[in-house]
């Protein structure tokens, strides 16, 4: 049976788990993804990157707990 991936916040959080969740979804290294997101945000005058992060933190569902 084919299991569908779902984009969720990561349990490996630094702030809200948004970038960590994106890294887990694409099987990327979370640290490099966070660095890339910071560089991209700073290059775009930081404001759009902050707004997108806040919106994703509100919209993205929480990851299921591994301890259930």
TrEMBL record:
It comes from the Bacteria. Keywords: Cell membrane, Membrane, Transmembrane, Transmembrane helix. GO terms for cellular component: plasma membrane. Residues 5-63 form the Phage shock protein PspC N-terminal domain. It is a single-pass membrane protein. The chain crosses the membrane at residues 34-60. InterPro entries: Phageshock_PspC_N (IPR007168), PspC (IPR052027). The keyword Transmembrane helix applies. It is found in: Cell membrane. Pfam families: PspC. Signal peptide: none annotated. This is Phage shock protein PspC N-terminal domain-containing protein. It comes from Dellaglioa algida DSM 15638.
């Amino acid at each position: 049976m084919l299991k569908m991936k779902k984009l969720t916040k990561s349990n490996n959080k630094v702030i809200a788990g948004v970038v960590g969740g994106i890294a887990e979804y694409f099987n990327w290294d979370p640290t490099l993804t966070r660095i890339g997101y910071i560089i991209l945000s700073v290059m775009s005058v930081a404001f759009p990157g902050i707004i997108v992060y806040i919106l994703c933190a509100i919209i993205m569902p929480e990851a299921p707990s591994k301890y259930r």
